[in-house]
Amino acid sequence: MLDFNYDTSIFNPALKIDIALIYIFVILLYYKAYKAFEGALNKDLLKILLFVGVFGFLSALTSCFGHGTEFGFNDEFSLKWFESLFYIVQASLFIYGGYKLNMSTKK
Fold first, then answer.
1. Helix residue ranges, H only, the chain
2. How far apart (Å, rounded) are the C-alpha atoms in residues 51 and 82?
3. Greater confidence, 44 or 4?
4. What is the C-alpha to C-alpha distance for residues 50 and 7, in angstroms, rounded to an integer?
C-alpha cells in the first residue's frame, strides 16, 4: 500500500532529493550556455539565471534536512529560515532578470 502521509511517506524525501538534482542539471545547463553565448545582454541574463539555479538548489538542499536539529539547529534557529531566504533571493533574481529583459526590449 502506498503511503502518501507527508511526514512518513518515502515520496517526501525522494522528491526533495530529485528537486535538488534537477537544480544541479539546470545550473550546469545555464553555465554551458553562459560560456557559449556572446553579447552583454545574453551574458547578463544567463548569469542571473545561473544564480537563480544556485539559490534554487540551496533551497531544495535545505528543505531535505527539515529543521536541521541533527546539525545543531533548533526550532527557533531553523534551517527553514534559510530555505525561505534562499527562495526570496531566487524570486528576486527572477524579477530582476525579467525587468532587465523588459528594459532591453524597449531600446
1. 11-36, 40-64, 79-105
2. 16
3. 44
4. 32
